[in-house]
Design a protein that fits this description.
By secondary structure, the chain is mainly beta. It is built from 1 helix and 26 strands. The protein has a single domain, classed as YVTN repeat-like/Quinoprotein amine dehydrogenase (Methylamine Dehydrogenase, Chain H, 7 Propeller). The strands form 7 sheets. Strands 1-2-3-4 form a 4-stranded antiparallel sheet, with no helix packed on it. Strands 5-6-7-8 form a 4-stranded antiparallel sheet, with no helix packed on it. A 4-stranded antiparallel sheet has the order 9-10-11-12, with no helix packed on it. This is WD repeat domain 38.
Length: 298
Amino acid sequence: MWKNPSEYFATATVKYFERHKGEVNSCALSPDCHLLLTCSDDSRIHLWEAKSGTLKQKVTGHTGPVKSCCFSPDGLLFASSSHDCTVRIWKVDTVECLHVLRDHSKSVETVCFSPDSRYLLSGGWDCTAILWEVQNGQKRKVYHGHRDAIQCGAFSLNGSYIATGSWDYTVRVWIAQNKGTDKILEGHKSNVSCVCFSISGMLASGSWDKTVCVWNPRNGSLIFLLKGHSGWVRNITFSRDGILLASTGNDKTARLWDCENGRCVKVLKGMMEVVHACAFSPDGTLFLTGAMGLSPSC
């Protein structure tokens, strides 16, 4: 599918979704690629038809900037986190809010579902990550250890590990069902802004130090140190097959990296604003970015 990524992106068309009135902080495609989810500093979540670009629903409820959003892997739910210190879980079909989760004491910067859609992880400025049970909205576990704000979090695709990235310059890898930290990954020289796992089990982290680190989370070793961005790295994501890693940054570019050798295979330029968010579609045919002051393009 990604045998010649440079050739694909040279001929790709771009579609813009423009309705938000603030910075777009996060974006996500539903597992079936029919829906697009975006959230913004305007305190709103937008639900779109991905193919037509039609805005289906303006989702309101948060009382502060919405920092993160994601679909559950089964496609039935989506979640959002906000500067208002809450996490919300919503039904996709009715856009009904099922749970408002209130145990964070400061802004909640990140939210993500476990691969089986049973659990939700959130993390924020209170330096804690919380694991929630999706069905009843109950708190299952609190992860302590970071010395500064948690900016990002992710589950491994087999659900065994959780990774969190912090303004304390570290990535922590937790065994999902245990209380302690399995590994503390040190190497970044500034705040860690994003983390993600690949299908093969690699862990990537992006930082304000303008680099992306690719790790082996099982032994904590550094596989690649990816340099090229001239501004801090805002977001990263692996393609579904694990062949490509995408990164976006303050330098108004997106970069595509070959996970076999760590080589940058494409630099996507032409974005007029800082690129906050990025996502591959599950089938690998679309790449989505969201920018400051704009809704996403794909």
